[in-house]
Amino acid sequence: AIVVLCFVGAASSLTYSTGEPCDFTHINLEGAVRKIVEMLPEYMPVGSQSFQPVFAGLEIGGANVSGLNKFRQYGPLLPFCLNGTRMLQVDLIISGGAGISAPWRHCSGSEGSIILRASLMRLTTHFIVNVSESSRDVSLSYVGRKIPVTTEDVVFVLEGAGEVAAQVSVGLGLVFRPVIETLWRDIFYSGFVLGLRKVLDGNYQ
Known about the structure:
Mean pLDDT is 83; it is low at 1-19. Strands 1, 2, 3, 4, 5, 6, 7, 8, 9, 10 and 11 form an 11-stranded antiparallel β-sheet that branches. This protein has helices at residues 29-39, 163-175, 177-200; strands at 4-7, 43-46, 52-55, 58-60, 63-66, 72-73, 78-82, 85-106, 111-131, 138-152, 155-159. It is an alpha+beta fold. It has a single domain, classed as Bactericidal permeability-increasing protein, domain 1. The relative contact order is 0.19. The longest helix has 24 residues, at 177-200. Keywords: Signal. Residues 1-19 form the signal peptide.
């Protein structure tokens, strides 16, 4: 499904001109992208939030992505034409503040959180650019594509299980870094898409 956010006011100090049929002249791409980015939520639950058994006595709850509101545009916008359709490539970056958390609990009464944090991450995504021919108002449609560019310093921490367990969890995160990074990409980018779609659907104002 394609979702749309309308952005009113097309005058812009920066313009793009690529010729017909994809003419970007006097289209305020910066304003449309900025409004979307500024509306991204701080927190986004991913998947079922109910507790699920992992092994005897231990249950883990649903994941929650944090820091989507810290995304910022990185570098210039790259408009292009695809089969006569205006398209836009956008690079987004977070420097600090991105995280994933999930609660855990044990039948012994212990409970806490599983935490993943990254110091920096960057992704590329694409939009369809829709322009009203009468008013020149801009709307962007998400086409469902995201490309991870880089993720740095993903850290795994187990909170609530005592200081020794927390230190061991950091070591395990280093040993199993490829697994942790794959888990990060799967969950965090799912949260990004969910948050983006909610913005474009108008569920965040």
